[in-house]
Amino acid sequence: MNTFFGIIQNNLAILNEEESLHCVKVLRHQVGDTIQVIDGKGTIAIGKIEAAHAKQCAVSLTHKEVMKKPRDYYLHIAIAPTKNMDRIEWFAEKATEIGIDEISFLKCKNSERTVVKTDRIIKVVESALKQSQQAFLPKINEVIIYKEFIKKDTSDVKLIAHCEKKEKLQLKHFINQNKSYTILIGPEGDFTSQEIKEALDLNYNPISLGISRLRTETAGLFVTNALAYQNTAQ
Predict the structure, then answer these.
(1) Is residue 58 within 8 Å of residue 50, measured between CB atoms?
(2) What is the CATH code of the structural domain delimited by 3-66?
């Protein structure tokens, strides 16, 4: 059964123009066909197409279920976008499949890219959400200056992954249930010493991601997977 994003109200779902076009013109669904609709806010529904228009497809719902949050923690990764956008899109896709709640893009001193087309990232995570049969769409934020981001962060657990040879604990030491996490992932050239100091002054804890020096997108996926595994194992 094909899955689409839509606005769900009572017993009716409306697909946006892009989803409607894909449903009607690409997959050639017709009136009476059964499809699945998710709204990205926790509702998964099944229904029959009652209006098969390429600009606005309407679905009469026969079953609707409001899902519970799949995780007992909230994960926000703030990451410096890579020069090659394919790599950061790969991270967003895989992190969505594993489980993430929010992604922010940081403009750092050593950033290779300062512009991100978030509408493209949203499409990537929507596709990943449908493929992995999940109900909650991660929040995707616009690029923000590093210093501005760390000043307004109010997470329970604030962590920064950097490569300087200073005292750091393993990520596992900070993982607990029912917490909100923000984890800072720097650009390929790493955070500057000043940026690290600014984070530490605001009570971020420095963490190690192992002995290997990881690429930016690999580091982001590493911490996503670590939290998912640790909380599943508990």
Answers:
(1) yes
(2) 2.40.240.20
